[in-house]
Design goal:
Number of helices: 10
Structural class: alpha/beta
Shape: globular
Length: 299
């Protein structure tokens, strides 16, 4: 798995918004190519599957259950948002899905395989882009970081960097440094680094929470464009109900304490979605209200 700082290693850590990248090789992780081989091998299998997942923390005062029993699937090519009240365990779930934390009971699967460490088919984007980017490296060098351990030719590596920066609207900013960019542009660099790796699954933890409203709308649309352009499956943890309804094919709502899935809502708006047209639909307001009521009851 590639994470925001693009480093590699076998032992995952995540204490300051940065973590490691598994460097074991598989046919998918070595090339970083999105999904075709794996999808063909496991046709009909959910891209991600969570079955009876439980997480309990051991503390000096005893066991603290955070996640009681979660079960849901994410199909290939879907955008799924996970929402719930603050402190319900959304980020803990994300860390379990990405192999950054162990699972107490149950299982999380990617393409039918148990997740027992950071999967090479997965990339992770955190909220804190200021902690994930290397300020002494240019945009190009930041995006290049997770590609160093892949067996790619120089030409293919540079093509991935170029196409990723083009996809996020940063063509022309290659030689700038993160500190020379706005917050929204820095988050675009973090997203470009993730998609240059060509993961099958892109996992994002509150990725747009630190930017202004207009930039947030732009990044939401960018997220959908990335899904369509690169065929990625995207899982997003967010506190923003409108964002969840706008982006998702399905919304997974967590409630109770310890956390359980209280509802999975299908979102069937037409594509491509539009920030004005889609948000003006009567169905949008109805779904937003339904999600809000579920979260309020759970909180």
């Amino acid at each position: 798995m590639t994470t925001p700082n693009g480093t590699t290693g076998n032992t995952p850590t995540s204490t300051t918004g940065t973590s490691t990248t598994s460097n074991t090789s598989t046919s998918t992780g070595t090339t970083g190519t999105t999904g075709t081989t794996a999808a063909a091998a496991v046709a009909g299998t959910p891209r991600l599957s969570v079955q009876g997942l439980q997480k309990i923390y051991d503390t000096k005062k005893g066991e603290v259950p955070v996640i009681a029993d979660l079960t849901f699937d994410v199909q290939a090519g879907e955008v799924v948002c996970i929402v719930g009240p603050s402190g319900i365990g959304k980020t803990t779930l994300l860390k379990c899905l990405t192999g950054l934390q162990s699972i107490t009971a149950g299982v999380a699967l990617i393409d039918g395989k148990p997740i027992e460490g950071p999967p090479e088919e997965m990339a992770l984007v955190f909220q804190e882009y200021t902690r994930s980017l290397m300020p002494w490296l240019t945009v190009t060098k930041n995006v290049r970081l997770p590609l160093k351990h892949l067996r790619l030719s120089q030409a293919e590596r540079e093509e991935r960097i170029s196409s990723a920066l083009q996809a996020v609207g940063l063509a022309g900013a290659e030689q700038k440094y993160p500190w020379q960019l706005s917050g929204g542009m820095q988050q675009r660099v973090a997203i470009a680094r993730a998609i240059a790796y060509r993961p099958e699954v892109l996992v994002m933890d509150e990725p747009f929470a630190s930017v202004d409203a207009q930039t947030r709308f732009e990044l939401e649309d960018l997220c959908l464009q990335i899904r369509d352009q690169f065929g990625m499956t995207i899982v997003i943890v967010t506190h923003d109900i409108d964002e969840a309804v706008y982006l998702s094919d399905r919304v997974v709502v967590l409630g109770e304490r310890p956390a359980r899935v209280t509802r999975i809502l299908d979102i069937d708006f037409d594509s491509p979605r539009d920030q004005i047209t889609t948000r003006s639909l009567p169905g949008f307001a109805e779904l937003r209200t339904e999600v809000f009521e579920l979260i309020r009851k759970a909180g």
